[in-house]
Design a protein that fits this description.
The complex is a heterodimer.
Chain A: H1 8-39, E1 68-71, E2 77-84, E3 87-89, E4 92-96, E5 100-106, E6 112-115, E7 122-125, E8 131-136, E9 141-146, E10 159-165, E11 177-178
Parallel strand pairs in A: 2-5, 4-10
Antiparallel strand pairs in A: 1-2, 1-11, 2-3, 5-8, 6-7, 9-10
Chain B: H1 3-34, H2 44-77, H3 86-108, E1 122-123, H4 126-156, H5 164-195, E2 201-202, H6 204-215, H7 217-232, H8 234-237, H9 245-258, H10 275-287, H11 289-309, H12 317-320, H13 327-350, H14 355-358, H15 362-392, H16 399-426, H17 440-443, H18 446-471, H19 504-527, E3 533-534, E4 536-537
Parallel strand pairs in B: 1-4
Antiparallel strand pairs in B: 2-3
The chains are: A alpha+beta, B mainly alpha.
């Protein structure tokens, strides 16, 4: 580093050298993020799928009988949840460990958001949109799924349970549904 | 300096600091409520009323009034010419006070518990939003006065560098005019019509996008006074020179450019935006690292110059030779430490993929308390201490009380926010009034929540000591202080570069960047006509 009595050109040279280091640091950060996004496929939930909050209960997908965990003919596991002031429907959901799971959320009222403790599962649930997260749960046990966005006075009470069970214990019924009750 | 501008600056500062101390009390109580310890007077209604009041005071009242007051001070002392339009400045001050009164009244009556970030379709009383619009309108008057003051100086001093403190102040004013467009559009076209009962539904995706326009740049609006102190006060207080005046100008221009087209990084986890624009704005966010690190270099080099002038030797001996008993020097050092932790956390927040790990957890709360409450607010203290003798005409009773207060703030902020970072990684979520500590996952967090509450209590002590310190020159027998403020001189005369002495060209660049970054993300709501949400009135429709 230069002394106080050096001329302005030295200062400029030192600044430029530092600017090159900064530029390299920023480039490295961006490359790491691009790598994670493009190569590893780590992307935030961004599916832009409209759904009318005013008629959510009349929609085919988010009617009460279709909520919770469902395994389709191809074996794909999908969990559908309605987030509403101040509860989740259903408030407990079962998922298999070590298998791809798709979580789909919709809100009939205000903004909510969910995260699952100990995982990277995280999304806002904005009325007007289906929020969708793809994930794979690695460890079995009960995890907390709270509402992470202020949704009104009862916000703190809005918590659900994600029950991760071994794949062998994950047995769909005749309709392809799996729920917490028979497992209790 | 003139009596009129002294009074103007003091009036703004006292309003800001009064709001600050109230908010510090509320903040400490909120941490108590969230901890395993039983808090007095707790109820969820009171908690969210308190969070709203804390956020509005800390985010809107303190910085806006502080920045306006500081701008008037800089315009007169750095330019060494009378402030143009002083009656307008007083008018704006009273409009701002009226706005604060309306908003505060609405919140305290429990009619606006929507937090300072609004969250429509939750809707509070219209007086809350109108009050905040008045505060913003007052700040627009300030912006115009700052621009006029610099233009007047440039007419009288053609071909000369605008003093850096004023150049930076006008950079902030120009940036603030751009910044407020988003939230103003949200309030005027969506929220206020709903609050008045004219509309019953709201396009929530659009309102979130408009708010995000404001949400990041507003933090740089708060931050720029801290940077002004880094560049134009800290080197002088340390007894040295500013290493590079040109680098300072460049830094403030880069802040203007890169604080605006980046707000979508607050919406990474939102379903109403596609990956492409999230990616673009993540990239632009990464560029904000550049002015921050340029500043770290230039200010560290300036401090090194000072340390060596004071006889410091060796690779790091100059650090010890610095006058750490001077509040401005100490605050700058502590601010840099907090910027290191807060900035490091910020890199994770802006990383498009990693954001999922910490979005809406205590990690985020920790991040902005460290950057704003830490780096920025400790520099607000330092600025107040630096110019208070000039403003009041009297000196502080004890310099030690000032540095003690700064140390307490630093320690309190670290003790509060380091556990928050950790708890955020564990998945502790935000905006919770109380936790159910009977749950084993949550019970394990309890001890760390108590540690952070202790940090909050230390911050409260520091906040009260700050007010006590500011009152000391008003006491009888305080010694008289000289009527001048010294700004740092550059180590080398800076060349005159036209582009670094005005904002005409840079405004065009901002416009291009904003159209590129926000054009489609906003237009999509009009092209595809997203379904709207029903308005939820938190004040029972009154």
């Amino acid at each position: 580093m230069t002394q106080a009595h050096s001329d302005g050109r030295d200062a400029l040279r030192a600044e430029l050298r530092w600017a090159a280091i900064v530029g390299a640091a920023v480039a490295l950060i961006v490359v790491a993020v691009v790598f994670a996004g493009v190569v590893l496929g780590i992307n935030p939930p961004s599916n832009i799928e409209h759904i009318d909050p005013k008629t959510l209960h009349l929609s085919a997908e988010f009617t009460e009988s279709n909520l919770g965990t469902r395994v389709d003919a191809n074996g794909q596991v999908t969990v559908r949840v309605v987030t509403t002031q101040f509860s989740f429907i259903p408030s407990c959901m079962v998922v298999p460990a070590g298998q791809p799971v798709t979580l789909r959320f919709a809100s009939p009222d205000v903004i909510h958001g969910i995260l699952v403790t100990g995982t990277n599962v995280n999304t806002m649930v904005v009325p007007g949109y289906v929020a969708q997260v793809h994930t794979e749960f690695t460890e079995t046990g009960d995890l907390l799924m709270p509402c992470q966005e202020y949704c009104g006075i009862g916000h703190s009470q809005m918590i659900a349970t994600v029950r991760v069970v071994p794949a062998a214990d994950f047995i769909p019924d005749a309709q392809g549904k799996v729920s917490c009750e028979p497992l209790r | 300096m003139s009596r009129s501008v002294k009074g103007l600056t003091l009036a703004h500062f006292w309003v800001g600091f009064a709001a600050f101390v109230v908010a510090a009390i509320l903040g400490a109580w909120q941490m108590w409520a969230r901890s395993p310890l039983p808090a007095p007077a707790y109820s969820p209604d009171l908690y969210y009323l308190s969070v709203t009041a804390h956020g509005v005071s800390m985010a809107y009242v303190l910085p806006t009034f502080f920045i306006m007051g500081f701008g008037y001070f800089v315009a007169e002392t750095a330019l060494k010419r009378p402030l143009p339009g002083a009656p307008w400045a007083w008018g704006a001050f009273y409009v701002g006070i009226l706005g604060v009164a309306l908003a505060a009244g609405s919140v305290l009556l429990g009619q606006a518990s929507v937090l300072y970030t609004f969250y429509p379709p939750l809707i509070g009383t219209v007086f809350f939003y109108v009050g905040l619009v008045l505060v913003v309108a007052a700040s627009w008057v300030w912006c115009v006065l700052m621009i006029l003051a610099m233009a007047g100086w440039k007419r009288e001093n053609p071909g000369k560098n605008v003093p850096l403190a004023m150049f930076a102040t006008v950079a902030n004013a120009v940036m603030w005019l751009w910044t407020t467009v988003g939230v103003a559009a949200e309030l005027v076209f969506q929220v206020i019509p709903a609050a008045l009962g004219w509309t019953e539904t709201i396009d929530v995706g659009l309102s979130r996008t408009l708010f995000s326009w404001t949400l990041h740049a507003i933090v740089y609006f708060w931050l720029i006074p801290a940077y002004i102190a880094f560049y134009t006060m800290a080197p002088e207080a340390a007894g040295g020179r500013l290493y590079s005046d040109t680098m300072g100008r460049l830094t403030f221009v880069l802040f203007l450019l890169y604080s605006l087209p980046v707000g979508l990084h607050h919406l990474f986890m939102d379903p109403e935006h596609a990956t492409g624009f999230k990616f673009l704005q993540m990239f632009l966010t990464a560029l904000v690292v550049i002015p921050t690190l340029l500043t770290v270099f230039t200010i560290t080099a300036s401090m090194e110059v000072a340390g060596r002038m004071r006889g410091g030797k060796g690779l790091l001996g100059w650090i010890r030779a610095l006058p750490w008993d001077r509040p401005m020097v100490l605050a700058t050092g502590l601010a840099f430490l907090m910027l290191f932790f807060g900035g490091g956390g910020g890199l994770i927040n802006m990383s498009y993929g990693m954001n999922a790990m910490i979005h809406n957890t205590s990690w985020v709360t920790a991040h902005f308390h460290l950057i704003f409450g830490g780096t920025v607010v400790i520099m607000y203290f330092a600025i107040a201490y630096y110019i208070w003798p000039t403003l009041t005409g009297r000196d502080f009773a004890s310099r030690r009380a000032l540095t003690t207060q700064l140390w307490l703030w630093f320690v309190g902020m670290m003790v509060m926010t380091l556990p928050w970072h950790y708890l955020g990684l564990l998945g502790q979520w935000r905006r919770v009034a109380e936790f159910d500590y009977s749950n084993p996952i949550i019970a394990a967090w309890g001890p760390w929540v108590i540690v952070s509450f202790v940090g909050g209590a230390i911050l409260l002590v520091s906040a009260v000591l700050f007010i006590v310190n500011l009152s000391s020159p008003y006491r009888q027998g305080a010694t008289k202080a000289p009527d001048a403020v010294a700004y740092a001189r550059p180590a080398h005369p800076a060349p005159y570069i036209r582009a670094l002495n005005g904002f005409g060209m840079w405004n065009v660049v901002v416009l291009v960047l904003m159209v590129a970054a926000y054009g489609f993300p906003i237009a999509q709501f009009f092209i595809f006509d997203a379904p709207e949400a029903i308005v939820h009135r938190v004040n029972g429709g009154g």
